[in-house]
Every structure is written in structure tokens, then in C-alpha cells.
Amino acid sequence: MTGEVEAAMRDHLIRDDGQEDVLVATYVLSSGLERTTALIRSIILPREGERHVHGNASFTSRYVLRAASEARAAGHGLVLLHSHPGAEGWQHLSGMDWETESEYERVARTATKMPLLGMTLGGHDTAWSARFWFDRTAPTWAESVRSVSSTLGVTWNDELRAVPGVTSSQERTVSSWGERAQGSISRLRVLVVGSGSVGLDVAQRLAATGLVTVGVMDYDGVEARNLDRMIGATRLDAALGRSKVDVASQLMKSAATAHKIDIRRHEVSITDPEGVSIALDYDVIFSCVDRPWPRAVLNGLAYADLIPVIDGGIALDTFKDGRMRNGIWRAHTLVPGRPCMGCIGQLVAGDVSLDKLGLLDDPEYIKGANRETPSRQNVAALSASVSSALLAQFVSLTAHPGRRGVPAPLRYILSSHTLEHSTATSGPYCPYENATTLGDRRTPIAERRDDWRITVAARATTKHSLRLRVAAWVERLARRTIDRIVD
Fold first, then answer.
1. How big is the CA angle at 164 (ends 159 and 170), to the nearest 5 degrees?
2. How many Å separate Cα 39 from the centre of its chain?
3. Per the database entry, which stretches of residues form a coiled coil (predicted)?
4. Model pTM?
5. pLDDT for 239-298, tens place per residue?
6. Who contacts 259 (Cβ-Cβ below 8 Å, separation ≥6)?
7. If pLDDT is split at 50, 70 and 90, which confidence band does 431 have?
8. Which residues pair with residue 72 across a beta bridge?
9. SS3 readout for 264-280
């Protein structure tokens, strides 16, 4: 849910007189490859006489039936919420609450053709819990409840996603923000889209921070021209044309501080529906791509599916004689309440179509359209500045230093040593932000293409010389030996 919706529900459910209260809302689904998320769409406040508050609060049938009718008309599912004023943490159901929700399960399903969603708010620490009712026998509990705004607030179901133990390698990390923050941050499922100079660095540092589940998505392989930026990639990686996600996976494994890290390799394109389905399984996404089409896809997911997207990039400018003129890097987090890439001028809608057609790499089109050839300059020393800026956004989003959350979009100008805070605001007719919490009803931007599949398949069938195969075998043997000795 958005932070704005959460605040409105919390204000209703937590009463000044300390009594429980009830509320009805609606939801839509956001369906990933492995995970299904319910996005709270609207709040239906009770009218006079539609609920009883008597220490324990209760719904009336009139209230639930009215809300079910509104949900059906909108094509949404039904949510029944209640509060436990003095409680904290993930809440289980009392016998009375179980009976109430199971009783209304049939009403919700009959009216909306979707399962009932039950939610509880603990008033002491404003922690949420949630469960789906697929039938009347027992609920299916959610793994977490997430509130997305300039801060990401998560209530975890410890029974489904246990708190990872703190390791000796995390001592200084935990001392920076405490065990509670570490317990929440380490459980986040974080996806890095793009495993080049910036993404590779980000992925390794997430692993070193103690995150248990980190995914990397990229379908390209390592080339010799990547080695001046992909710190950790080797000449052997380039000679073998290894996939960037394989290289990232190995480096993350070496950097990991968690007892056991789940590294997920995704050799797919985010511009393909398959890539989108994978991305919807994650809690936070790093956008480390530099093309309009993939950035448009991620820009859409940030709002339609309430997955914070941390985006940034670098642009270097040179004089005709080759000397550096300037360098600019930027970082921003896409969440409700913050402007999207289009609104801050980092995404041009027309370029998305051109990118789909491959025209942004076509010299003839670029010349005929009087466009500038895309800049490809990058420097390892400055790529680190971009990854640092993105990771600082992640810390602000998840650890909330100063309780302020993520800042306005930032831009650093190297030539003048100036850090600028963008004054851009959301456009009133922004198609991305106006699609907030659409979930599976989002306007599709991704399309099925075979070009990336051909790239992946070609890499898998490439024949290497005996010399390279022996070098790869020696490398694997050395790694296994080191792992056995260290473990």
C-alpha cells in the first residue's frame, strides 16, 4: 500500500479512546512469477450505524455488503481490517476474528470472484499483518506487509521469513543502524537490473551488507571492453564471454556476510514479460540500465506495483581534443510521492518507441534525425560514485536516517563540484503516476522479443579453445579448494 493509504487507514483504526475499530478497503493483484501481492486500492469508510464499537469492534452486514458491491463494480477484491490497540508485531487471529472473517469469506468471493483479504493493525507499534481466505477452513498468511512512500516500512511474518542471524562479519554494519533495522533490511528481496559497472558494484555491496536474497538480471556477456569498469571481472571472464550474471553471482558469493545467501541469476531482459514477472517477486529494484525502454518498464513498475525503484546514471562530456569537459551523475528513488523519470526529465516517451525499433543505435537514423550519437564514455573511478549514490538512496529508503526517507532527485556536477536537489514535481497528467496501484491492470510496456534469447542461447553453445577450457578448469578447482579450506 502507499504511505498515504496506510496513514488514512491507521488514523481511522487507532482511536483516541483506546477501543478497537474496523474498516473495509479494496485491493487488486500484482502477480509475479512466484509471489502474488495484494495492492490496497481504495478505502471504504463506514457510515453511521454500519459498525459497532464496544471495546471489541464489529462489522455490520450492511457495511460489508455495501463495500462488496462497490468492490465488484470496480473489479476489485475486498479487504476487512480491524485493530488491536495495545498489540505490537505480527498479529494472529483470535477465535472471534477468525469466525468473523471466515463468515464473510463467502460474501466476498460471491460478490467479487476474488478471495477475501483480512488485515490487522497492532496499535502499539503500528505493525500490520495480513492473510488471504481462499476458503472458509483456514487463512493463508502473507509473508509481509509493505508500506511504500519516501520510506519503505515492512512488517514481517517471522514464521514465514525468519530473522537472519547476525554474523561476526556484520558487527560494524549492525552497529550503524541496530539489530532491528538489520533484521528487516537483510530480509528484503532486492533485484539489480543491469550487471555492468554500477550494477556489479551494487550487487556485491548488498551481499556484503548481509542481505539474504539478491537477484541480478542481465542477458549480456562480459567483453574485453567492459574490464575498465566491471571491477572484479577478469580477463578470463571476457575471453570466455561469461554471462554478467554469472560473474556477479561469483563475486557476490565471495562478498556475502549472511550465513547463507540466496543469489538469483536471471539471464533475461526486463523489457520482456518474463523479466517483468521475475521483477514482481522483489521488494526493491535497482535500475542500473541506460536505455529508454528498460527504464520505462521499471518506471512503470515502481508506481503500478509499488516496488521502489532506485535509478541513476552517469554522463561524461569531452572536448573535441579528448579532454574531459564535465561529468554528471544522478540518483533518485521512484516511489509514490516522488516524481517519476519522465517528470524529472530523465525519460522521454518518444525515445521508448525508437529504442524498441533499434533506431537509437542506427547511424543513418541518428544522422537523418539530427540527433546526437549516444555517449558511451565511462570511467571506473566515477562509476563508483554512481553506485555510492544509489546505495545511499537504498539506506535512506530502508533505514530512514533522520526519519526523513529518500531525498528529492539528486544530481552531482563534477566540473563545479555541485550537488543539486531537483525541484521537479509530479505532472498532473503523468501516465505513470496516475497508474499507481494498478497492478496486473497496468498498461503493458514490455514485449516478447527473441533477440535476447538468441544472445543467451549463442553464449551457451560457444566453443572455446582447449587453452581456455583448461584455464577455466584450473580456476574452478582453485575456488573449490579455497571454499573447502575456509568452510
1. 165
2. 14
3. none
4. 0.95
5. 999 999 999 999 999 999 999 999 999 999 999 999 999 999 999 999 999 899 999 999
6. 164, 165, 167
7. very high
8. none
9. EEECCCCCCHHHHHHHC
- 8 Å CB contact between 67 and 78: yes
What string of DSSP letters covers 315-348? EEEE-TTS-EEEEEEEEEEE-TTS--TTTTTS--
C-alpha to C-alpha distance for 278 and 219, rounded to whole angstroms: 14
Minimal CA–CA distance to 346: which of 394, 302, 303, 295? Answer: 295
Task: Indicate the Cα dihedral angle 260, 264, 265, 267, nearest 10°.
Answer: 180
> What are the grid coordinates assigned to 78, written together?
475486498
**CA 200, CA 383: separation in Å to the nearest integer?**
10
Mean pLDDT for the stretch of residues 222-244 = 91
Which residue has cell 535476447? Answer: 452
- Reply yes or no on whether the pLDDT at 380 is more than 90: no
Query: Residues in the chain, how many?
Result: 487
Are 186 and 258 spatial neighbours (Cβ–Cβ below 8 Å)?
Answer: yes
* CA–CA distance, 325 with 135 (Å, rounded to integer): 65
